[in-house]
Amino acid sequence: MTRRPLILVADDVREIRDLLRYTLQRHYDVIVARNGEEAWELFNAYEPDLVISDVVMPRINGLDLVKKIKLQSYKPTTPVLLVTAITKDRELPDAFWKDFAGSDGYITKPFTAHEVLAAVQRLLHEAKDELAAGMRAHEEVRTDEL
């Protein structure tokens, strides 16, 4: 039996955490954090396959959590999906979230279950493809050395 992907959800609003957990738990294993500091601890303890984080949180905000995951963790390739309340009329370009924030994607509040599931599925698929490509490249290097 294959292991279900583990998703870490970090949001300081209980209703958002509960909504995301409810949306995801049918397809994924889910752990939740109430703030960025707790998320960082859970990230290191449980090695999630994907992180969904609110941008504005106490202790460690979502942008700093992304930086910690991408620059200070043992698993920097873990996809991070940011959740933001930036409204559509003030929406930042997609490149901002990747280039400045370092995340792998974002969704805006309010969001639908379909948006969340589609983004999670896409990021997990991309991560799986990148891992497979890296393994193939490693095998090619080893073959070339022989």
Describe this structure in words.
- The chain has 146 residues and is α/β, with parallel strands linked by helices.
- It has one domain: Response regulator (Rossmann fold, 3-Layer(aba) Sandwich), CATH 3.40.50.2300.
- It has 5 helices and 5 strands.
- It has helices spanning 14-24, 36-46, 62-72, 94-100, 113-145; strands at residues 6-10, 29-33, 50-54, 80-84, 105-108.
- The chain has a 5-stranded parallel sheet, with helices on both faces.
- Helix 2 (36-46) packs parallel to helix 3 (62-72).
- The termini are far apart.
- The model has no long low-confidence stretch (mean pLDDT 86).
- Average the pLDDT over all residues and give the rounded result: 86
Strands of the widest sheet, in order across it, are 2-1-3-4-5
So what's the overall shape? Answer: globular
In total, the number of domains comes to: 1
Tell me the number of helical segments per DSSP (H or I, 4 or more residues long): 5
CATH superfamily annotation? Response regulator
The helical percent reads 40-55%
Radius of gyration from CA coordinates = 16 Å
Our measurement of the CA-to-CA distance between the termini, rounded to an integer number of angstroms, reads 36 Å
What portion of residues belong to β-strands? 15-25%
Q: Summarize the helix and strand pattern as letters.
A: EHEHEHEHEH
Structural class assignment = alpha/beta
Q: Could you give the count of β-strands?
A: 5
CATH class: Alpha Beta
